[in-house]
Amino acid sequence: MKNIYNNEKRLLHGGDYNPDQWLDYPDILKDDLRLMKLANVNTMTVGIFAWSALEPTEGNYNFEWLDKIIDDVYNQGGRVILATPSGARPAWLSEKYPEVLRTNDRREKMLHGGRHNHCFSSPIYREKTQKMNYKLAERYGNHPALIMWHVSNEYSGDCHCELCQENFRDWLKNKYKTIENVNKAWWGPFWSHTYTDWSQIESPSSIGENAVHGLNLDWKRFVTDQTIDFYENEAKPLRELTPNVPITTNFMADTDDLIPFQSLNYDKFSKHVDILSWDCYPAWHNDWETTKDLATKVGFINDLYRSLKQQPFLIMECTPSGVNWHNVNKAKRPGMHTLASMQLLAHGSDSVLYFQWRKSRGSSEKFHGAVVDHDNSEENRVFKEVSQVGEILDKIKEIKGSMKQSKVAIIYDWENDWALKDAQGFGKESRRYPQTLQSHYKYFWDKNISVDVVTPQQDLSKYSLVVAPMMYMMTEETMDRFRDYVKNGGVLVGSYLSGLVNETDLTYLGGWPKTLQEIYGIDVKEIDTLYPKDKNSIKFGNESFEVVDYCTIIEAKEAEVLAKYEEDFYKNTPAITKNNLEKGKAYFIGARTNQEFLSKFYDKIVKDLDINEVEDFISECGISIQIRENKDEKYYFVMNFTEEEKNIEIKGSYLNLISGKMMERLNLMKPYDVYVLKKNKH
After folding, report:
1. Which member of 55, 202, 234, 317 is catalytic?
2. Is residue 501 scored above 50 in pLDDT?
3. I want to staple 641 with a disulfide (CB 3.0 to 4.6 A). Which of 158, 295, 316, 389 is the partner?
4. Which entry of 55, 154, 385, 503 is annotated as an active-site residue?
């Protein structure tokens, strides 16, 4: 991590500021400075969509307005994250250089407009963005306000133009070397899809080829690599001229379930950012899940993004109120913004930054939540809650740089998700790989056990327990790493729909892979996919538990049978198994179970491993306790994610950093209440 960021000892509080929208309103720009002080913000992200204001016509630059903004923020004690403006082009650029516009999968050239409607292959767009970034780095690289570079914004999408087709073919040549190897990897003879020349290969299209799964998978890999390559082209001037200023770009989540963003492999991308940042927009107070259950999903994705680099991350965007793009854009209830902000910190963030500082007056984001509303008032509820969060961040700033220490890891693999979604089999609506991981994660969140969400390539040796469900696509290297982990004393949990295809989405021949048979002590014979109305159950101990969607027919070899099916033609056959392999153990869950079973199942494993991180706390359901620590201190975030008062008993001596008082033994937490408690480790 670069020195200039480490020199800032405060937790970052502020967010996206778009003064370029208000250049004709000098009184508003002046008032922004007053309001920033009242809101207790210290960091502004500037310039994200400001290309038209910075370069109104080709070659004619206007930086004077940005000079003043950065100076003004700095002069009142603030810092600046300076963004590069490539996420949205000015109209003159699209008009003069139409090659910068994207082509969709139907081979239709897109029109100017929107965001991220640009071709990552375009030499002209690469040249123009790099030139702009050189100018920004030359002008502001030594400004004392600058704390970080924010490259572009929320990278996404793909382009299917001829430039991208050629780059894709070059990518394939580099990977496979010969066209014969491509045909072998993609199973070319199927439907006579054998290629005889590189020129015949095109990206997947809704009006052309879209059923070759190896092609689809490699296209997604190429899009990730191409996006990273474009990002690195943008970052080159910044690294060259300002090597002491860290660089980030904001990652995202996907769908109402807040699963990892699906279109890019963030595991790969994370290696190219100095500090990982992401944009967090849960649909709080929705009508399909409890506050506690949604908080579980927020915890999962925070733990993933923290674990990718094994260091604290930044929340680059969140909203202090509502958004404008959910199906129902509900405002946060009183107290929720403070609680939600503390949860972000509890799982490893060193910032609470917002989109946006001031609501736009027009266009699509004029009703998106902001610190400053159209009323320009510091007296409204949202502004006051933001100010309160700023006060709390100042009181707890000593947590900055501290980390979570986890004995449990859950495996998430972007490429596995791509392949499983593309698989033409099983149940279309029931695969739900990320949501299944969230279900396993929920057990540990409910028990206040810290979790790292890691990828198969990361080091597993430091974890007592590794949970790896639904690893449909598994390389032989991953299988070997799992085997070594178990042999060396680790405890592994796997599940149905695992180990079916290799890295090019070809099935393994000869049945279930021998390495997995060795790890789990079983052989998988068949997978039964259930209709939503189908029912089965398993007998585990003296209890029956319902299973849905998937049932694996298992032949137990060395493994001990822990549960059996109670219905259908595989009645009384193994459903859950445990295998001892040298120093470790491997469990296999053959069916999709309910949360009640997972609780019973993991209770015994956690007890056997003696994982209890909050022994000083006795709390009711709905209270989450998350720990961050450095070499001297432990910080306990105690949070009530319910709409009810909850009891908590605290043993030992803890200082509440928010109130400045020592905690009482018995406490009644109000709805959405939060404590940040400190305890010396020595």
Report:
1. 317
2. yes
3. 295
4. 154
